[in-house]
Amino acid sequence: MASVSSDKRVPFIAGNWKMNLDHLQSIAFVQKLAWSLKDANHDFAKTEVAVFPPFTDLRSVQTLISADKLELGFGAQDVSAHASGAYTGEIAAQFLKALDVRYVIIGHSERRQYHNETDELLAQKIAIAIENGIVPVICVGETAEDLELHGQSAVPVAQLRAALALAGGATNIVVAYEPVWAIGSGQAATPEQAEQVAEQLRLVVAEILGDEVADATRILYGGSVKSTNIAGFLRKPNVDGALVGGASLDIAEFASISQFRKHVGT
Predict the structure, then answer these.
(1) In whole angstroms, what is the distance from residue 249 CA to residue 204 CA?
(2) pTM of the model
(3) Long-range contacts made by residues 83-90, C-beta under 8 angstroms, separation at least 24?
């Protein structure tokens, strides 16, 4: 069984902007966020922080972070399963790699729901991200109906097992547990619920990729995350950060979430 020790894992706070902020707004936002974290003496070595803007913002964010030598990370919200070709509107992993994109969200509940993305398609996206040296943030989670029918961890576990089918010898992934019933509802899962699922997800990583990878894999919670509840989640041994939605668009709130150590006194 994989260890639950989090000593090896740097907490990760990821802000998913979804379809918000144009490229000009993204520049102002990233500058202000960087200033806020600097003023708070944020230590990026102890807590990594990254933003996930829309595709049209990525070049602007990359240029700003590079020019100002900011420690903020950034990622994309999706990637094509195809390397290139006649796939109108899709974005290839190699395009993201050329922009120094480090992370990409794959399988977000909104992609599954509104774009009918299957486990098989997501496995292909994960494989091509890994092939291009981009870390996939693999999203799994259950709806309220799933929760009632199958219990808490059954659906996320099945989704992750299917998603990792083509991961091969992957050594660097992030997993995000997002209970769909909690997203945007203002009603988050309890830290105990998040821990229960995170523990089961880590066992799946161990089963498929080995204990060493499982020990190093960061598992995030996402679903109505706020500065007032983040500390409770991060106290749990298998929860290594948060995938933040709406609150990531509020600079003060997102900066406060990123400063969760001040809430737990560590």
Answers:
(1) 32
(2) 0.94
(3) 83/128
pLDDT bin (cut points 50, 70, 90) of residue 35 is very high
Catalytic, out of 110, 117, 142, 178: 178
pLDDT band at 5 (very low <50, low <70, confident <90, very high): very low
| Higher-confidence position of 59 and 266 | 59
The Cα–Cα gap between 217 and 227 comes to 24
E strand or H helix at 220, and its extent? strand 218-221
- Residue 12, beta-bridge partner list: 48, 241
Q: Is 178 a catalytic residue?
A: yes
Domain extent listing, the chain: 12-256
Task: Kindly report the backbone phi and psi dihedral angles of residue 242, in degrees, each rounded to the nearest multiple of 5, phi listed first.
Answer: -145, 145
Chain segment 10-31, per-residue pLDDT in tens: 999 999 999 999 999 999 999 9
150 is catalytic: no
Q: Which CATH superfamily is domain 12-256 in?
A: Aldolase class I (3.20.20.70)
What does the pLDDT read at residue 152? 76
Catalytically annotated residue among 42, 108, 142, 199: 108
Residue 121 belongs to what H/E stretch?
helix 119-131
245 contacts: CB under 8 Å, gap ≥ 6: 16, 18, 183, 184, 222, 225
Q: Indicate the helix (H) or strand (E) that contains 74.
A: strand 73-76
